[in-house]
Amino acid sequence: MLVLIDNANLYEIESLYTEYPYDGVTTNPTILRNEHADPIKQLKAIRELLPKTSQLHAQVVSSTTEGMIQEAHFMLDNIADDMFIKIPVSAAGMKAIHLLKEEGVNITATAIYTAMQAFMAGKAGARYAAPYVNRLDNMGADGVQVATDIHNMFRIHNMESDVLAASFKNSQQVLNLCRKGIGAVTAAPDVLRSLIKHDATFTAEENFEEDYYSLINEVKGFRMKKN
Ligand code: G3P
């Protein structure tokens, strides 16, 4: 399962990559707005910061097929020609997904709230489908179940699409999808850090360190030193 960072802050992305080898960055217009910078320059800077093997996903904002395609071309020409273009699964978006796929563009279908939207986007040619897990939960639906249904439908129908689940509030939602074998998740920095953090691990590490160095003081000739 790929694990991506849903954020556009250069400092945050760099510091997360220093802590762990993530698989890329996803953004949307709201995430970019938080940076108060030219979005194309910001996306270019993110691309330059990332290792070559990492993915970058960025979203179009037009509501017409023609506008989406133009924006996609602009992003591919001005940011990176191998980036993933995120397209919302409106009727216009479905058509844009199909036409861009014919050009060989990597597409992530986004703003997905139902399994059938994802299925149709996959059939149209989207490489990834991004259901909004926590937003679904907040609507009284089961976000993990919707994402799992999409994953199962892609596999049952031998499609080349994968779930890139987005919108997480906590690590439990990520764990539940990891158990199902979905292709990818993208989450905000606080959720990503919570995937690893556990106070008991910290305490165990402290206790081991304490015991080890008390042993050094006890045993003559024990040479390993604390750095
Ligand atoms: O890109 C869409 C996804 O990141 C939305 O997340 O936290 O705004 O629901 P959130």
Characterization of this structure:
The chain is an alpha/beta fold and 227 residues long. The chain has 2 domains: 2-188, TIM Barrel (Alpha-Beta Barrel); 197-227. 51% of the residues lie in helices and 16% in strands. The protein is built from 11 helices and 8 strands. The chain has helices at 10-19, 29-33, 39-49, 65-78, 91-102, 115-124, 133-138, 143-156, 171-178, 189-194, 199-218; strands at 2-6, 24-26, 55-59, 84-88, 106-112, 128-131, 162-165, 184-187. The chain has an 8-stranded parallel barrel, surrounded by 5 helices. The model has no long low-confidence stretch (mean pLDDT 96). SN-glycerol-3-phosphate is lined by residues 6, 28, 132, 134-135, 166-167. SN-glycerol-3-phosphate binds at residues 6, 28, 132, 134-135, 166-167.
